[in-house]
Write a structure and sequence with these properties.
The chain is 65% helix and 3% strand. With 203 residues, the chain is mainly alpha-helical. The chain has two domains: 2-129, no CATH class; 142-194, no CATH class. A two-stranded antiparallel sheet has the order 1-2. Helix 3 (53-69) crosses helix 5 (93-110) and helix 4 (77-88) packs parallel to helix 6 (119-129). The N and C termini lie far apart (60 Å). The model has no long low-confidence stretch (mean pLDDT 81). One of its GO terms (biological process) is DNA recombination. It comes from Photinus pyralis (Common eastern firefly). InterPro entries: DNA_brk_join_enz, Integrase-like_cat_sf, Integrase_catalytic.
């Protein structure tokens, strides 16, 4: 009984603190000129990678839906601990850290709540990760690659060979290979110049 009272007290205190932070933020925002606020919103929008924005928003929507299903709109460490404890029963530690990163950024943008300061939550994720050995994907050795390039028949595997060369020796990512056009490849006789369109790093 006493333990339940303590938990309820902690939840109440954190709820009050969250409400105070949000009220204070709203007060500060009301004092900021609209032109400055618009520019700040544009800058904040850049905090999430453009190409991954849909994934971040999807993860945030799942969390919001979970809150609704559990009959609460409160966002505090107790709530986040419960959420990630449930996720840990389904997902591997590496996936939990990815979800944590996505939710942290989207909550900071949408609710001005920084769950990166939740020490108990981060410690929970660290504890879950202890002893976890991630599965290693099978990879081709240098000898395997050379053997395939030299021995596999061109009439059947020429396109795969080109993709392999661009991917391994050119450092291209999957999406970059998919976006590449014939016009991006220029034959200059002794050398071939390849232009990578819309790189992930925007370089």
């Amino acid at each position: 009984f006493e333990f339940v009272n303590v938990i309820e007290t902690i939840v109440t205190i954190e709820t009050i603190q969250t409400s105070m932070r949000q009220t204070f933020t709203q007060f500060i925002m009301a004092e900021v000129p609209e032109s400055i606020q618009n520019k700040a919103n544009l800058a904040a929008d850049q905090l999430i990678p453009h190409k991954s924005k849909s994934l971040y928003n999807l993860e945030y929507s799942k969390f919001v839906k979970w809150l609704a299903n559990n009959g609460t709109g409160i966002i505090n460490e107790v709530v986040l601990l419960t959420y990630f404890q449930e996720l840990s029963e389904v997902f591997q530690p590496t996936s939990l850290w990815t979800k944590f990163s996505m939710i942290k950024k989207t909550l900071l943008l949408n609710k001005n709540v920084n769950i990166g300061n939740y020490a108990k939550l981060t410690q929970f994720l660290k504890n879950v990760s202890k002893g976890h050995v991630p599965k290693k994907s099978s990879v081709l050795t240098r000898e395997d690659i050379l053997k395939f390039l030299r021995q596999a028949p061109n009439h059947e595997y020429l396109l795969v060979k080109v993709a392999l060369i661009f991917g391994i020796y050119g450092g291209c990512r999957r999406q970059e290979l998919c976006d590449m056009l014939i016009s991006d490849v220029e034959d200059r006789g002794e050398v071939i110049v390849v232009t990578i369109p819309q790189t992930k790093t925007d370089k």
